[in-house]
């Protein structure tokens, strides 16, 4: 395999974004895996891969990736929201609610507030 360069990393990241937008999450994951292996600290690549895992219904992998992001960025509202959606899809509503509420507390966007269900019984 040819050596990765900063340029190939950027090209692969952008191509993975396009594949995810084109509803090819598995293709995106294939491009992101070697990029993340070379740069495990890249949170942007990890977030994109987490979204791709979610879109591919690979919920355990998505959960693991979103949790990794939150371990390093506990104030990432989108990662909390996306993890909540993942947990919700995995039929774990009480865990999901916690992350929906954290997302809404960190960023009071209307969709985060609505998903948090403030005022609804637990």
Question: Would you mind describing this structure in some detail?
Answer:
This protein is mostly helical and 122 residues long. The chain folds into two domains: 58 residues, no CATH class; 49 residues, no CATH class. Helix content is 75%, strand content 0%. It has seven helices and no strands. Helix 2 runs antiparallel to helix 3 and helix 3 packs antiparallel against helix 4. It is elongated, with a radius of gyration of 15 Å. The mean pLDDT is 94. This is Tetratricopeptide repeat protein. Keywords: Repeat, TPR repeat. Pfam families: TPR_19, TPR_2. InterPro entries: TPR-like_helical_dom_sf, TPR_2, TPR_rpt.
Name the helicity range. over 70%
SSE order: HHHHHHH
Q: Uncertain runs with pLDDT below 50, 5 residues or more?
A: none
**Coarse morphology:** elongated
Given helix and strand content, the structural type is mainly alpha
Number of β-strand runs:
0
Alpha plus pi helix count:
7
End-to-end distance? 52 Å
Number of domains: 2
Describe, in short, the structure shown.
The protein is mainly alpha-helical and 122 residues long.
List the helices and strands and how they pair.
Layout: H1 6-21, H2 25-38, H3 43-55, H4 59-72, H5 77-89, H6 93-106, H7 110-116
Helix pairs in contact: 1-2, 1-3, 2-3, 3-4, 4-5, 5-6, 6-7
Keywords: Repeat, TPR repeat
InterPro entries: TPR-like_helical_dom_sf, TPR_2, TPR_rpt
Protein name: Tetratricopeptide repeat protein
């Amino acid at each position: 395999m040819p050596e990765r360069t900063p340029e190939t990393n950027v090209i692969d990241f952008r191509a993975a974004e396009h594949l995810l937008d084109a509803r090819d999450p598995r293709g995106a994951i294939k491009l992101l895996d070697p990029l993340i292996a070379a740069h495990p600290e890249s949170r942007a690549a990890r977030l994109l891969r987490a979204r791709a895992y979610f879109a591919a219904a690979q919920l355990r992998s998505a959960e693991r990736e979103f949790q990794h992001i939150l371990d390093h960025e506990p104030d990432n509202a989108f990662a909390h929201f996306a993890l909540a959606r993942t947990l919700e899809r995995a039929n774990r509503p009480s865990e999901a609610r916690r992350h929906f509420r954290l997302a809404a507390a960190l960023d009071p966007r209307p969709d985060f507030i609505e998903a948090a269900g403030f005022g609804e019984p637990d």
